[in-house]
Recover the amino acids of this structure.
């Protein structure tokens, strides 16, 4: 079974605030996310926070 | 037929019977976070009155003509009042009334007899952002429908299915609906997508709690939800043909609001994060998109909102009902099952047992684990323990269990996706503790008490002035 992260953290490229999306977003290299605070949409790859 | 039940009728009746448990707020309040702040302040005091916010500022900045009602479904007392039950028995009564009462098949009425279609907006007239929909928590991306019964049909049998699904108001005529992959509504969507057909959908928002509770029973798939809705309410659910989805798409005639729309095959968009029942934000998802085709409502309609993440009594009572039925089949000696809000109404399960054999607690734990993947902490207690009070359940754990003998743990088990402590793929450990005394004839130390005759005879008000009694502070918090 594919092991998935429970969530993937990202930081908004406009307002710098952090949020997270579901682990399944990792399956799509072109995945987009939306900042829930300012509603800016961006590519996950641009905004993803690397976790330890 | 008797007067059709409705949300407004329930609020009025409850206010008459329990005036201290209904609060009306006439001061303007913002739908963005302020309604939630009020609910949270009450929660801190362990109070959950039915609240009517009479002047709500919408996302558009104006005051809505529609009041917002909260806590009519979020509290055990109100759920009990809705179906003529009481605090302790509401879950069992919910189950038994649906199963054993005479089934009430829905009746179809003409549009002119349907209060839910008294006011109609279609096309560009529709502006969901002008409705008093609540923006609940800081990291929610916007206003969300939370007490909406999302309704759609199995395309083969045209059986209606409905359940609460949150809906993000992403535009004046667009809602992104979180349909979790295990839900029957999601299965309906996938069935439509496999046929490359759009799915007709509707939210109905605001109805008498008995109709909602009946419609929200766990059913096999596909199975009609309208019959149990009427059965629990004691009267048929009145239905009316939708305005824009065809005459065979029926919606409740006495709901407060109906939002009609379609979901096109394969269309998904960003939705969430959203503050969910475990009191954490569930992550952002790609969710199906509902394009709204009509909004209809009663004259003077009330907007109903679930305060998700605050006192999840609705789900707890519903789960309690289902868990009791499942565990009772395995262990007939089960007396009561409680799903406390300390476990978000889902994660903790307290089982009260009339124990006759030392193997029964583990049997009950195993039955509970199988009955729901959400349940992860089960405590089995004796009949003398009040399962509706965490203090006594924890007292039983403190004085009737040993970790090395009484624990049953199932590692690497599928759990809730919204449990923040679960690992990858929602896997985690689940289990239970046997906090019961040994079965008869083995003896156990006796619990403290005074003779029953003395307890019944000596009442506080016979010795202490009632005014003084009323001023005594409430119990400790632990």
């Amino acid at each position: 079974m594919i092991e998935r992260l429970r969530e993937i953290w990202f930081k908004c490229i406009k307002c710098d605030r952090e949020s997270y999306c579901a682990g399944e977003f990792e399956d799509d290299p072109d995945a987009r996310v939306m900042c829930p605070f300012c509603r800016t949409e961006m590519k996950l790859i641009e905004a993803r926070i690397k976790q330890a | 037929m008797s007067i059709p039940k409705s949300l407004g009728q329930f609020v009025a009746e409850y206010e008459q019977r329990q005036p201290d448990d209904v609060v009306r707020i006439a001061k303007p309040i913002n739908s963005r976070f302020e309604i939630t702040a009020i609910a949270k302040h009450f929660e801190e005091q362990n109070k959950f009155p039915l609240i009517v916010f009479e002047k709500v500022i919408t996302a558009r900045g104006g005051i809505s003509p529609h009041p917002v009602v909260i806590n009519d479904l979020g509290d055990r007392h109100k759920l009990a009042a809705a179906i003529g039950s009481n605090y302790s028995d509401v879950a069992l009564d919910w189950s038994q009334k649906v199963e054993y009462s005479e089934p009430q098949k829905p009746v179809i009425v003409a549009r002119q007899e349907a209060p839910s279609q008294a006011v109609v907006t279609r096309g560009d007239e529709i502006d969901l952002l002008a409705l008093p929909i609540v923006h609940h928590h800081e990291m929610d991306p916007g206003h969300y429908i939370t007490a909406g019964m999302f309704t759609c049909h199995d395309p083969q049998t045209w059986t209606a299915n409905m359940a609460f699904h949150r809906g993000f108001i992403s535009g004046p005529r667009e809602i992104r609906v979180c349909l979790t992959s295990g839900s029957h509504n999601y299965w309906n969507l996938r069935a439509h997508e496999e046929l490359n057909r759009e799915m007709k959908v509707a939210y109905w928002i605001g109805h008498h709690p008995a109709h909602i509770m009946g419609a929200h029973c766990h059913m096999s798939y596909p199975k009609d939800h309208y019959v149990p809705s009427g059965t629990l309410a004691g009267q048929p659910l009145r239905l009316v043909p939708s305005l824009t989805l065809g005459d065979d798409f029926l919606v409740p005639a006495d709901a407060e609001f109906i939002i009609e729309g379609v979901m096109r095959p394969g269309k998904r968009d960003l939705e969430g994060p959203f503050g969910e029942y475990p009191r954490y934000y569930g992550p952002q998802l790609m969710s199906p998109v509902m394009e709204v085709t009509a909004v209809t409502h009663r004259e003077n309609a009330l907007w109903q909102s679930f305060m998700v993440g605050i006192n999840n009594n609705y789900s707890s009572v519903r789960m309690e009902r289902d868990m009791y039925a499942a565990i009772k089949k395995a262990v007939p000696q089960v007396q009561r099952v409680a799903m406390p809000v300390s476990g978000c109404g889902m994660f903790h399960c307290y089982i009260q047992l009339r124990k006759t054999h030392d193997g029964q607690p583990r049997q009950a734990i195993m039955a509970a684990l199988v009955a729901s993947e959400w349940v992860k902490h089960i405590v089995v207690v004796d009949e003398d323990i009040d399962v509706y009070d965490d203090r006594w359940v924890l007292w039983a754990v403190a004085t009737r269990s040993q970790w090395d003998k009484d624990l049953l743990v199932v590692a690497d088990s599928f759990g809730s996706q919204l449990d923040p402590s679960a690992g990858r793929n929602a896997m985690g450990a689940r289990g239970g503790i046997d906090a019961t005394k040994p079965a008869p004839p083995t003896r156990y130390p006796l619990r403290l008490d005074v003779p029953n005759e003395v307890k019944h005879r000596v009442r506080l008000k016979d010795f202490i002035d009632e005014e003084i009694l009323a001023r005594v502070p409430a119990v400790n918090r632990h």
